[in-house]
Amino acid sequence: MLKIFKYLKFKEWVQAAISLVFIVIQVWLDLKLPDYMSDITRLVQTPGSAMSDIWEQGFYMLLCALGSVISAVIVGFFAARIAASFSQRLRSMLFYKVDSFSMEEINRFSTSSLITRSTNDITQIQMLVTMGLQMIVKAPILSVWALTKIAGKGMEWSLATGVAVLIMIVIIAFIMIFVLPKFRKMQTLTDNLNQVTRENLTGLRVVRAYNAEAYQEEKFEKANEELTKTQLFTSRGMAVMMPMMSMIMSGLSLAIYWIGAYLIQDAQAMDKLPIFSNMVVFSAYAVQVIMSFMMLVMLFILMPRATVSAKRINEVLDTKPTIISGTLTEGKTGLVGEVEFKNVSFKYPDAAEYVLQDVSFSVKKGETVAFIGSTGSGKSTLINLVPRFFDATEGQVLIDGVNVKDYDTEALYNKIGYVPQKAVLFRGSVSSNVAYGENGKETVSEEQVRKAVAIAQGTDFVEAMDSGYYADISQGGTNVSGGQKQRLAIARAVCRDPEIYIFDDSFSALDYKTDRVLRSALKKETAGITSLIVAQRIGTIMDADQIIVLDEGRMVGKGTHKELLATCQVYKEIAMSQLSEEELVS
Ligand SMILES: Nc1ncnc2c1ncn2[C@@H]1O[C@H](COP(=O)(O)OP(=O)(O)OP(=O)(O)O)[C@@H](O)[C@H]1O
């Protein structure tokens, strides 16, 4: 928990220190009140007291109360400020950290858990800072100070207060044993609920189409029920706890007056007044002692959740990304757009089996290399090693003669134009999506955007949109078709003007004609740029300079379409399943 506070800035520590001063002032003023009360009681009971003296003490009491309120407002103001700026910083830090994560870390935490950590967990910390700053400091000062004030003012009353404090301690222990574990569980259950909600929302169309609402609702209800049950348990615990605390507080006041009544009755006439005055003061201080314990209980409610949240936030912030940037910004002199795999093997983190085994090939500048193979043969995995979404477990992946691990990641990404299997569009316009990101060169002009869209065969549909290149694209690109999305994603890669294109099955949503026209435009307009293409269709890749055939993670063929037809059985089978006799021969 304390570890998270190392992210507080000096300015916030200063504000906390100022708050501390005001908290001490507030406690001092609160504890001063009973003194004046005692004076007033004494004055009222003393024959011949002047009314003006009583008014004077009353005026001091009023001043104390006012000062206490002003101090409380100042403390509240600072606490809110510190909490708000601290949580803003934590949110930014989490965002930047997650941005630096590779797929391995994202998968390890899960997307929904990362979202809960950046929102709900930070709110818990914010709440703790806002309320805790006042209580953590105030409760111990108040209790110790109030106890010193009542010390020696009456054995019997001290005993009564001791019993009340003991009962309070038993209650706090009860909270710690039974309620704390439930608070800890609450964050994980919130994660779980978010996960189910997210899955349902992203897959809503499938849920509808398969009449799976009942199934999804059941999943949701289970997660919801679990969270509700835990919340109810803790709330019930607290619902019982708070009135019990108030009861103890009132009970103690009653006990003090009751004991006081006996003491006054048994006392000599001249001792009656001091005992009465002591009793009034004692009960006021005893209430403060109980109040401080009540604050502690409140802290015990806030602390466990915030502690769990702090741990979860720290887990993310302390995670070292497995993909660490190198330092080189350029490849070997004279080499541009060259890719080489040297005996590359790969297995996913925590997986037992290798997904790729001993893959070796090299690609020269301007060449097109295609990867084909059955589903799950490792094609996407293979090309994901080039932009370092994962690092090779064994062997080396080289770009321009340099291991990808040695490149500064920004310089590495500047060399690559990557189009994923599932096109991703961001909220904005057509233009902002195509000119997306930076490539270390000058900013992209409107002309370049138009040209990229034209190469990606998107001009017709973009110009038919309401505002053309400035037409709105909604989050995830839900207002364009799958093929249009893919064309915009391809245009984005073209606009980047990279050394190497990576197309991960990026032509699959295009019709055959668009696929052919797009590839020939790419070849013509972007000659000299190396292309790595994963494809399922033989038609898409038969013109490639080199085709690599994968089967269960192993390279079982390498060559041109013609060579492979003659030498590679796996390729021949794929080709025969897709092409007619004439196409095979031609
Ligand atoms: N993140 C991951 N964690 C663990 N295993 C994975 C992960 N992604 C893929 N795999 C496994 O790696 C193997 C290769 O997957 P990959 O996506 O590379 O195949 P592919 O040839 O591209 O398939 P497709 O043509 O269906 O896209 C599969 O067996 C898959 O289950």
Automatic annotation (TrEMBL):
The chain crosses the membrane at residues 12-29, 59-84, 127-147, 159-180, 239-259, 279-302. Residues 17-305 form the ABC transmembrane type-1 domain. It is found in: Cell membrane. The keyword RNA-binding does not apply. SUPFAM superfamilies: ABC transporter transmembrane region, P-loop containing nucleoside triphosphate hydrolases. It comes from the Bacteria. It is a multi-pass membrane protein. Keywords: ATP-binding, Cell membrane, Membrane, Nucleotide-binding, Transmembrane, Transmembrane helix, Transport. GO terms for cellular component: plasma membrane. Residues 339-577 form the ABC transporter domain. SMART domains: AAA (SM00382). Pfam families: ABC_membrane, ABC_tran. One of its GO terms (molecular function) is ATP binding. InterPro entries: AAA+_ATPase, ABC1_TM_dom, ABC1_TM_sf, ABC_transporter-like_ATP-bd, ABC_transporter-like_CS, P-loop_NTPase, Type_1_exporter. This is ATP-binding cassette domain-containing protein. It comes from Aminipila terrae.
